[in-house]
Write a structure and sequence with these properties.
The protein has 448 residues and is an alpha/beta fold. The protein has a domain of 289 residues: 3-Layer(aba) Sandwich (Alkaline Phosphatase, subunit A), CATH 3.40.720. The protein is built from nine helices and 18 strands. The strands form four sheets. An eight-stranded mixed sheet has the order 5-4-6-1-7-11-2-12. Strand 15 and strand 16 form a beta hairpin. It binds zinc ion (ZN).
Length: 448
Amino acid sequence: MYRGMTWERTVPCWLGLLLTLGGCKRASIAAEPTRDESQRVPARRSATPSPGPSTQAPASATASASAAPAPSAPRADSLLLITVDTLRADQSWSGYEGAKTPVLEGLVRRSVLWERAYAVANTTMPSLSSLMMARYPTELPRDECGLPAFWGSETLAEALTGAGIHGAGFHGHPIFAGAFAPSRGFAEWRLVKEALGRKATSGAVTGADIAAEMVQFLRHNPPGRRFFAWAHFVDPHDSYVRHRDFPPGPSPRRGLYDGEVSYTDAQIGKVLAALEETGLGASTAVLVTADHGEAFGEHERFRHGHTLYEEEIRVPLILHVPGLTPARIAEPRSLIDVARTAAELLQVQPPSPWRGVSLLRDLEGPPAPRPVLIDAPPLVTMTGQRAVLQGKDKVWWRGNSAMRLDLARDPAEQSQETLLPGAAPLLEAQRLFQAIPQVPAKPCYRGG
Ligand SMILES: [Zn+2]
């Protein structure tokens, strides 16, 4: 039996601010477009390496598995990781027409796109720490505010720099400043001055400065030096601001957000252009993703950090590797896999505690199904919640409430099946979490 089920919980605005460094606004509703996910073929490394990330895409964006030569392992000397705060999965390359994103759309045409990629959590630090440490948030030391003590394992940067790869971070979000910033392993950690002392998510525009720092880094990278450069663009996070060159769409809230996304797309374009100008693009992999999505009223909620509906947890996942044939992969995947993917691309041994599976396995043949675990840890303002996706079946629980959603029949998640404690699908989903040890959260860090 399917029936409506609501987990609304009133969260004071100031507590929401504490958790996500955002604001509270009223807004209108924008629907998520439907997407064609019929294409699903493995990518193969092409016989002739492409010049780099800004090279024009081939006529067909879909690889032909049968005609491809025998695959060789994709490799790169360096990695450019671009994460965009609050970037939803539905963008121009998947049929959404509200935001112009020519740079990322072009990158998608020459990349492997995972069409159903999921952040591990629905707020910034749990998600990014999971991405950087290939561990689930609730198994990491942390505090109840989600800020800032999520560092309890060897990070991707530490693994890479331990192998002689130069690590550099470029950031504008306030959580990247201070003693608990996720800077471990980075030789350089550049914070744009506009973000320091201000809340970059409350009106500051930092994308151009972050891009400028990254461009300077690329232009001055010593010959032959391998690097891992990570930029986190934050402008699409609310509060949304109006950009003169990227006017908002008609929807009061999504339209403004779309303008922020278009603005960020242009800033990423500067970085990719610098990669080409310097010649580094021929040996540098580019991975673009996001820490979580954003709700625009699909389920009567706005912003993020509230639910595990698709709009809050589904994100883009784009990987360009020079010489790798573009493809689209429809099998659901988790960002828990990013660290192992990066390590394999750069030929670095991953630390044994890391979870996940290198996404490069998806390029060797038909992608194997495997469950995607969502692990939004309990915070001072909300109960922890978890979900397991297997194909298009989603089981999601919070406390003693649980439900099952059928994304094949109902991609907009407008109806759900209530699951009682002990229900077989719930037990099966919870069993997948039993192998993950739980670490209690500490009280919120109060500074010092
Ligand atoms: Zn975020």
